[in-house]
């Protein structure tokens, strides 16, 4: 009896009991985890929450999975800052599993912090997307993003104003800037209405992005000097369009839509997303619009360009990176888009005004038959089928600079405001971009 | 009792009294430190550590993380940095020379004897300081766009022949930034001056009145000297704020046209968080800016000390 209750066997017994309990607890926890659905945390804009709830719902319905989606509202600028701060500090605790990022920003993020993002080459087929859109999130040949929507550039014109000058959008489709300026000047002289409006940065950016020039070398340095003849021509064309009353310069797209609404200019040129601003602002002109592509810089040049757009990325630090990648590839680059007779595409274009860019889905003909409640049936067919015609200009973190305040818009502003020679302004910007890249 | 002994006893009594008092002081000191410890820890973690980390980063190269002075020498050859300094100096001049006199003027009006509804005016003038940045910058954008109220008024009055694209013109864009900043912070500075006014002895004005001083003389020789500490304080705050101006510009003009409204702070932010994302160089520029602010603050305080 005394031996039975001696310290050694008692201790062994207790240890044994503890081990059994611990093992049981671990098994219980594993079972509970297996039964519990995975939660994917997604950062997005506040106005996207409803749409993304629907995407999650569709994904679970199509795949039979049981994934919880937690959509966290976060402004685009805050997302970018948070990603950069996490990458610099090495602290990943607060990161989401995936997010959608504007294309103009994702370039810098993938260049500087490619380790932050999961390579997605194994999850989707890049050939299903326009190369120009893929370029934004591709670094060293690795695809870190799946294009979500397009910033495809279009020109929207009010039919009544065009008709007053004897024009249709057909006359303005597939033409060069030189032709556009000729037509626009005559239009202004006849009607007193400008043919097009937007800010210098919007139009200039559309022009150089349509150029198809190789603007960056393999190390990311800008090739402005190498392309100065063509780029100076773009600046001169813009200057001419302003001086000959073809373009009415404004502060930006919101301002421009108001200008078209008030009849000062006949059309606004911007990203495809401008359709939302137009339908929201110009209620009186429902069904009274025509659409054309953007003018090309020269004969035989491209009439297609980008102005915005965004891509999905998955964070490599995510515990559920694989599930997140499968989810986004399924919905944005796979069967999720064509299941249930394009329910997803229908929802996104109706509720969000977003055109999705997965070419197999675009080629189903859904958009050709889509009845836009504001613009009318079949309005977008000519436009949305041409995502893959946007030329590539290469990619570098300097793309963001060229697209922003330091870029070609600044060159145009210096030429127009200060009377600086276009070649000099381009040489200055080359020096500034080299300085940035050298740092 | 001999005087020596008496003194000795007195000093002993003093020491014996001093001992528990010292202990009490030590105890109080410990409690004091304990009370401020949470704030100090937060300050160390969220302020001092990032400053120290930023300082170290400013001496490291982006590519390899090697120790270098390159980020500081780079500032000297940066073609954009001097432009941002020039823009920032313009903001400092306008904010200091326009906003502070307006604040003083409003505070003087509100402190006039017998003014009715003074509290309502005070609240209304302070209200802009409580607005969120996006709200008021959006309002200013709308006011100054081509169809905005400013263009409509200027065209109707015949001052402009056609609407002006303010954000596309150098001084137009600067004007929007300056006006929006002044609109927001004037009421804030006015509160400081009002606080200063409340501390001025009213009998000084009564005496001046008896001596026949008019309103201007009373303000010049009584109010202004008495408010000088507040003038120095608001000048320091305004200058420091102007040197750090970022969000208004980011929201209204993004630094355009042609970088003519780009402030040093926005340039630092862009350098760190867009394009090439060079945190190291941005840190170096940040420290140069911080040193400039410290030097200006010291100069302003020295000027104030001389007055004392």
Name the features.
heterodimer, A: 439 residues, alpha/beta, two-stranded antiparallel ribbon, 20 helices, 13 strands, B: mainly alpha, flat
Describe the structure.
The complex is a heterodimer of chains A (439) and B (308). Chain A is an alpha/beta fold and 439 residues long. Chain A has helices at 7-35, 49-63, 76-89, 103-112, 131-135, 159-164, 169-172, 177-191, 200-209, 228-243, 253-261, 274-281, 321-332, 339-352, 359-362, 366-369, 381-384, 398-403, 408-418, 422-438, and strands at 39-44, 68-73, 98-102, 138-139, 142-143, 146-158, 194-198, 247-249, 265-271, 289-292, 306-314, 371-372, 376-377. In chain A, strands 1, 2, 3, 6, 7, 8, 9, 10 and 11 form a nine-stranded mixed sheet that branches. In chain A, strands 4-5 form a two-stranded antiparallel ribbon. In chain A, strands 12-13 form a two-stranded antiparallel sheet. The model of chain A has no long low-confidence stretch (mean pLDDT 89). Chain B has 308 residues and is an all-alpha fold. Chain B has helices at 3-58, 70-77, 81-110, 118-126, 133-144, 149-156, 170-198, 202-210, 215-243, 247-252, 264-273, 279-307. Chain A binds chain B through residues 80-81, 84, 88, 105, 107-109, 111-113, 199-201, 248-252, 254-255, 258-259, 262, 264, 397-401, 404-406, 409-411, 413-414, 417-418, 428, 431-432, 435-437, 439, and chain B through 62, 71, 74, 77-80, 141, 144-147, 165-170, 254-259, 262, 270, 272-281.
Determine the mean pLDDT of chain A.
89
Number of DSSP strands of chain A? 13
Number of strands of chain B: 0
Sketch the topology of chain B as an H/E string, one letter per element.
Answer: HHHHHHHHHHHH
Radius of gyration of chain A: 27 Å
The separation of the N and C termini of chain A measures 81 Å
Helix fraction of chain B?
over 70%
